[in-house]
Amino acid sequence: KYYFDEISKKLNKEIAIEDLRIVDNSHKHRKHKFFSPEKFHLQLKIKSLYLNSLSRVNAQKIVMKVLSEELKTKIHALEINIEK
Q: Are strands 40-47 and 19-24 parallel, antiparallel or unpaired?
């Protein structure tokens, strides 16, 4: 998906990442009250020595900051897994 490539590029530009997988879990949320087909429910699986060197909260804050614009427009929910 083109949009996921954009997210990947943006994260890789701002953060030292060894591996990134984006999982689209939007289909799991179709019945939710605020479901919108234009917005994604994403899970990020990130391998990053840099993010692992930070506290989990700070690492997640950095990811959220990089994607702040997307969180306002295209991403409804974001699950961030920083893998060891």
A: antiparallel
Cβ atoms within 10 Å, residue 21: 13
Phi, psi (rounded to 5 degrees) for 2 = -55, -45
**What distance in Å separates the CA atoms of residue 2 and residue 26, rounded to the nearest whole number?**
16
pLDDT band at 36 (very low <50, low <70, confident <90, very high): confident
Q: Please enumerate in sequence order all residues whose Cβ is within 8 A of that of 3, keeping only pairs 6 or more positions apart, or say none.
A: 40, 74
pLDDT tens for each residue of 41-53: 999 999 999 999 9
CA atoms 44, 40, 23, 5: torsion sign:
negative
Cα–Cα distance, 77 to 36 (Å, whole number)? 11
Prediction pTM value: 0.88
